[in-house]
Amino acid sequence: MMDNKQKEFMEAYEACHRSFVHYCSALAYGKMDTADLVQDVLLSAYKNFEGIQNKDVFLHYLIRAARNRAISLRRKKKYRFDILEQYENRLASKQVPADVIMDVQFLYRSLDRLSENQRDALLLFEINGFSIKEIAQIQNKSISAVKTMLSRARVKLKHILSNEDIEIRQLFSSLQTILL
């Protein structure tokens, strides 16, 4: 039997489960296990659930917590080849073509050359489909700041990819369809 806290937490989480796991999957690629990231964040969120003042934006809370956790883990290590191999195996089991897997790896390595905020904004907008207004709320920035950040991130990413014959939209589209 669930107590009241568990019930409230599960109701709040149920509404945002898919979006949260999708975001964590995009954020964790090649650096950590998605399930570990999700579990770490959910455990922390559950422990602090009473202190979350606005439960209506619980997804935003979870995304900020996942981002902070991922930053902490990234500082400790860069790509983990065992994790990359797990992602490659997962994509291969979904029968994703090898060239798409290579494109996804290339995209993530390119995204790593962006600032944390730029990378996060692109993941939220391009992969997860959040609106600019939602990203502004999540990142505690103005709408115009998010628009500028996205624009600059796209320009920088395009520059990074300019030596390759790869279209940015195609990469994001491929990634969006194969995650989860």
Can you offer a commentary on this structure?
The structure is a single chain. By secondary structure, the chain is mainly alpha-helical. The chain has one domain (about 5-180). It is built from ten helices and no strands. The chain is globular, with a radius of gyration of 17 Å. The protein starts with a helix and ends with a helix.
Return the string of H and E elements: HHHHHHHHHH
What is the number of strand segments? 0
Task: Give the low-confidence spans.
Answer: none
What is the general shape?
Answer: globular
Mean pLDDT: 81
Distance between the termini: 31 Å
In total, how many domains does the architecture comprise? 1
In terms of DSSP E residues, the strand content is: under 5%
Number of helices: 10
Largest sheet: none
Helical amount: over 70%
Task: Please describe the topology of this protein.
Blueprint: H1 4-14, H2 17-28, H3 34-47, H4 58-76, H5 81-93, H6 98-111, H7 116-127, H8 132-139, H9 143-161, H10 168-178
Helix pairs in contact: 2-3, 2-4, 2-7, 3-4, 4-8, 6-10, 7-9, 8-9
How would you describe this structure in keywords?
mainly alpha, single chain, 0% strand, 180 residues
Would you kindly provide a brief summary of this structure?
The chain has 180 residues and is mainly α. The chain is 74% helix and 0% strand. The radius of gyration is 17 Å and the shape is globular.
